[in-house]
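Q: I'm writing a short explainer about Probable membrane transporter protein for a general audience and would like to include a description of its predicted shape. Could you first generate the structure from this sequence?
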Amino acid sequence: MHLTDVQIVLSIFSGGLVGFTLGLIGGGGSILAVPLLLYVVGIHDAHIVIGTTALAVAVNAFINLIPHWRKNHVRWNAAILFAIPGAIGAVIGSVIGKRLDGKALLFLFAVLMLVIAVKMLRTKQSDQTDEKVHEIKFLRTIATGATTGVVSGFFGIGGGFLIVPGLMYATSMSMIDAIGSSLFSVGTFGLTTAISYSISGMIDWWVFILYVLGGIVGGVLGTMLSSRLGQNKRTLQVVFSSIIMIVAIYMLYDNLIILKW
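A: Of course. Here's the predicted structure. Afterward I'll give you a sentence or two in plain language.
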């Protein structure tokens, strides 16, 4: 699609906001990528929005994976074992998502946003790490990865909020290692989903580039500010969760047409 000058600026701003939030509070920011493209940038095709954001989330995840790798917080055996069946699941999820009506897909996406917001409100951040011995449960890791991949592919999201506890459940790794390792799956799931959508011509490549550029700058700024906030990050997490809830409620209202089926 042809973007106006205003939409170009808004695309960079929206990507920056997502990156800033991720850097600031460490998660959940990518869930806003879809509503920002819909209601701020003004792209009204739900499938193009989801395909484009899936690719943007994948690129940002792989970029953020590098510093975690350098700090030795990526457990590659578990990450790869989790990601391979998850990628297959993401293909299945994306195929189902593309076949679903756009309004129905956005309605279900809004429901997912509410679930994430509630989970963020109930999660208390801690600087402590669990030093359990890593024990990879083979079948559990494959099953959990595949299930998470289907959800990620269906909604076109990174799914980090599911992948982190999934890795901890399947491998007994510490929280910090699960966060670092999850980025490999987030990137893999997002890339797999994006490839599926791109084959169907459902990615706006220009918006993707603008979104990633904004996300990189926003992520750097968010990370810098995060180190100065200390305990105030919990307050920001509560505020951000509330914003997600408000946006989700509006999306539910905006897509209520599916209840008339």
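A: For your explainer, you could say: The radius of gyration is 17 Å.
Q: Perfect, that's easy to follow.
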